[in-house]
Amino acid sequence: MTEDAADADGDDRAADGERRSLEPAADDVLERAEADAPLAALVDKTRTETAIESLRAEGVYDDSRRVRENGSERVALPITEPPAETQVPEVVRQLEPEPRNPDLEALLVERGWSDADLESVPGSWAVIGSVILVTVPDDCPDEAALGEALLELHGEADSVLADDGIENDGTAGTYREPRTRLIAGDDDTETIHTEHGTRYGLDPATVMFSPGNQAERARMGEITADGEHVFDMFAGIGYFTLPMARAGARVTATEINPTAFRYLLENAVLNDVGDRVDAYMTDCRDLASELEADRVVMGYYGSSDGSDNDGNDGTDHGTRTDEAHDFLPDALAALVPGGVVHYHEAAPESLLWDRPLERLAAAADDAGRELEVLEKRRVKSHSAGVDHVVVDARFE
C-alpha cells in the first residue's frame, strides 16, 4: 500500500468514526422530537364519534389538530394528555400532526369582526351530515357572516341553520318540530348523517335531531341483545330504533309526527333493517297493551309550556307537559317480567336523582311489580340548571 493510499484509508476511517460519533446525537434529536410530539389516542374507527365526545367531556380532546387514520381499522384522535376516564387501546405521539383549518374567530376577523364582535362568537355547533346547526347569540353582529365562516371552516357542509329551539305550542309542539332559520348556503337541507355506522336520513329544518344524544344512541345499540323485542315508544326518525335493530333486535316503533315517520320508514330501508322494524304512525299508548317487549325505550321528556314553576312568563324550562312518566303505565303494560325500561327525563339539578327514581317507584307500585335500578346516566345538559337524564330500570 502506498503512503497516499494509507493516508486515504486513514481519512476514510476517520470519516467513518466521525459519522459514527454523530449517530448518537441524531438519535438524541429524534428522541427529543418524539418526546415533544403531541399525543393521540388510537381507537377503532367504529368508536370515533363516541370516543371524541368522551374525550371532550373529559377536557383532553385537542381541537387544534385533525383526526388522522392509523391503518385500516383505527384512527388517531388528538389529545392534550392521556385520558383518565375514557378507555382507549393505546396512546401514541404524532411526529407529523396535521393542524385544523383556521378557527372560527380568525375567519370572522378576516370578515371585519372587531374584538367586541368576537365576544358573541358561539362556542359550539353541530355538523349533521352536510348541515351545520348553530345557536346564534342574541348579540351576533352579522349572522350571515357567521354562517359563511362556518361553511369555510367545514368544507364538507353545504348549509348553515340557526337553531332557535323546539316548538312547544300546538301540533308543532306535540310533534317536537325544530325552529330553524337558514343563514348561509343551500336551502335544500335534507341530508344523510352517519353515526357509528348508522345512517340517518333527515332534514334538520323539519325534524328534531339532538347531537348531544349521540353517545346514548350508540349505547342503545351496544346493550341490545340479538333477538330481543324492543318497544320504542317515541321513535322519531329512528334515533334509537335503528342502532338497536342493527344490533339484531326486533323493534316495534311508534311515532305520531308524519314527517318523522316517513324518515323512520326510509331509514329502516337505508340501514337494511326493514325486516326487523315494525313501524306504526300512532300514539304509543294505543299499541302498548298488545305487545310483549324485553325493552321499552322512553326517549322523550315532554314539552315546556314556556312558564316557570310559579306560572309566570320567564325563561325557565317551564312546567313540562306530556312527560315520559305519564306514559309509564303503558310502558309497563308492554314490558315482560324481568324486562328493562330506559326512562328519560329532563330533571332540575336540585331533584336529581330523587324525582325520576320516585316516579319509577310509584309506577312499579301501581303495577304491582318489583323495581331494580340498573344504571343512572346524564345524557346532556338540557338547559340552565336542568339535565337530560336516563335511568335503566328492570321490572319483575
TrEMBL record:
Sequence ranges of Acidic residues compositional bias: 1-10
Primary location class: cytoplasm
PANTHER family, alphabetized: TRNA METHYLTRANSFERASE, TRNA(PHE) (4-DEMETHYLWYOSINE(37)-C(7)) AMINOCARBOXYPROPYLTRANSFERASE
GO MF, any single term: tRNA 4-demethylwyosine alpha-amino-alpha-carboxypropyltransferase activity
Location(s), subcellular: Cytoplasm
Disordered: region residues: 1-36, 302-323
Similarity-based family: Belongs to the class I-like SAM-binding methyltransferase superfamily. TRM5/TYW2 family.
Catalytic activity annotation: 4-demethylwyosine(37) in tRNA(Phe) + S-adenosyl-L-methionine = 4-demethyl-7-[(3S)-3-amino-3-carboxypropyl]wyosine(37) in tRNA(Phe) + S-methyl-5'-thioadenosine + H(+)
Protein name, as recorded: tRNA(Phe) (4-demethylwyosine(37)-C(7)) aminocarboxypropyltransferase
Any single biological process term in GO: tRNA methylation
Ranges annotated as biased composition (Basic and acidic residues): 11-22, 314-323
Transferase listed as a keyword: yes
Enzyme Commission (EC) number: 2.5.1.114
Function: S-adenosyl-L-methionine-dependent transferase that acts as a component of the wyosine derivatives biosynthesis pathway. Catalyzes the transfer of the alpha-amino-alpha-carboxypropyl (acp) group from S-adenosyl-L-methionine to 4-demethylwyosine (imG-14), forming 7-aminocarboxypropyl-demethylwyosine (wybutosine-86) at position 37 of tRNA(Phe).
Enzyme class: transferase
GO CC annotations on file: cytoplasm
